[in-house]
Amino acid sequence: MQELVNTFKQLYGKKAFQIVRSPLRICPLGAHVDHQDGLVTGMALDSNVEIVFAPSEAGYIRISSMDFPDEEYFHIDSVPEMLPGFWGNYIRGAVLSLQQDQKLQYGLQAVISGKLPIGGLSSSAAVTTAYLMALAEVSDLNISKEELVSYSHWVETEFIGLKNGILDQSANILSEDNRLLVMDCKTSEHYLVNKSPDMPEFEVVVVYSGVSKALIGTDYNNRVDECKVAGWIVEELAGLKRTALQDVKLRNISEEHYLRYRDQVPGKFRKRLDHFFTEQERVRSGIEAWEQGDLVQFGKLMFESGESSIYQYESGCPELITIYQVLKETEGVYGARFSGAGYRGCCIGLIDPAYKEQIKANIDAVYPNQHPAYQDVYKVHFCRTNNGARLVGEEDIGTVLK
Questions:
Q1: Can you tell me the distance from the alpha carbon of 128 to that of 90, in angstroms, rounded to the nearest whole number?
Q2: Is 402 exposed, middle or buried (0-12, 13-18, 19+ CB in 10 A)?
C-alpha cells in the first residue's frame, strides 16, 4: 500500500487522497448458475484491489496501474469505446454506467493495484467496484450497495460483453467476514449466514494455474447459451408456452418438469440441466452445513460441485483439473473446486491451516511436472475471509500504511 501511495504522490503531487479496498472473492458453492438466476454463495477475501485517488475538477480521468503498462486518460464527457483486452475498459465502463442516471461532477486522478492479479477470483468485478466507489466519492453520489452491484454488473455485461450473472459483484460488495453470503440471482435478494461457533478454523487456498486467457475467448458464453437451449427443450417437452431464447432461465424451469423430462433431453443439454439442478441442491445443503459448523460436509459438497463442473457443465482445462485432483487427494483440504468461470485462472479450497505446508508441497511436486509451460508462473496463495468493498476512513489510513 505504501508503494501505491508513493506512486500517487509522485504522479500527482498531492497530499490529500482517499483509498478504496475492493476484495477478490470466492464462490464455494453455486458454480455456473448465477447466469441462470440460481442461488449462489460467496465470500470476500483479505486480498484486495486497492485504489488511491483524488478528484479531478477539470473532469479528466487519469489512471495509472501498478500491474499494467500505459496510462488511461480521457474526459468524462468523451469516453472511449471498449478496446478488447485493455485494462482501461473497466474505468471507461464505470463512467458510462454511472452516467446513465447520475451526474458526475468530477473526474479522477488515481493509481490502482491488485495483489493477486489472477483469473477466477473476479478481479474484474473488484476493479470495477473500486472505480465506481471512487467516482461516487469524488462527486458525492449517494449510492446503495445494491445499486453498486447493478452498476458493476452493467459494465461487464453491456460494456465488456460477458454474459455473467451478479455473483461476482454481490460477493465483492455485500460480503461480511465470517459469514456466508447467499444471493438469489433471480430476485437480487441476499442474506448472510452466521458461522457456527463450533466451526473449526479454516483458511482459503488459491492455486493459480498460470492460464490467463480472457473469458471472451473461451466457451463461457457458449455454456450460457447451452443452458438456455436446455431450458427451451424442457419447455417444449412440457407443452409450456415457449419463452424467447434470450430470456430463458433454468431457474424458471420447475424441478418437477426437470425430473419428468430429463431423460428426453439430448446430450450436452441434459448435462447442463443436471449441473444446474444438482448444484442448487448443493447450495441448500451447504447453507445448513455452514450453520451447523460442519466443514467436512461443506467441503464434500464443494468437491461434488467440482466434479459436476468438470463432467456435467464441462468447464475446465487440463491445468485446472490437475490442481483440483491434487487438492482432492491432499490431507487437510476440506473441499475444492474451480473458481470463477472455470476456463482459466485458479482452483480454490477451504483448508485446515495446520496442513498449509503439505498442501503447497503436494502442488509443487505435481503441477510443474505435468504442466512445465507454467512452472514459472503458477502460484499457491493462502488467504482468509474479509469484509466487502469499502472506503478506508481517514482514521484508518495510518493503520493501512503500516
A1: 6
A2: exposed
